[in-house]
Amino acid sequence: MVACMDQNDIYPEKGSPALRRVYAVEEGQSPDARIVYVSVACQHCEDSPCVMGCPTGAITRHDGTGAVVVREELCIGCRSCALACPFGVPRYDVEGRMRKCRLCVERVEAGLEPACVRVCPTGALRFGPVNAVLGEKEGRFVGTLLRAARRADVQGYR
Q: Does this model's pTM top 0.85?
């Protein structure tokens, strides 16, 4: 959240909405209770409901990166995009227009990762072509299964 606020000059104390939100979710019961953090931002959907819901064409797909962005000069602040978005991502700004994650298009065009991905301490946020990111995730899952199978063989389970 902080990297996003810094990158986009967002000041919550002045009423600017956070473009990435992190929620703490409590799970379980004592003594096994824990807190899981869920990071929520724009999914930059391929078939974006917010784009279709915007009557002025202010929300579009960025030509260079494919990110779904708000063209602020066209936004009338009607909030139709927020109603259309299943994730509730577009937020109403104190200046009377909608704002949402821009996927740090300037950084991406310069060959850099979005700010949130760059600083994510756990590596939970990833950026890249969808198939590459999913392939990496799938590879980690298969590796985990193989390690578990090897442990089972060593321990005599079959």
A: no
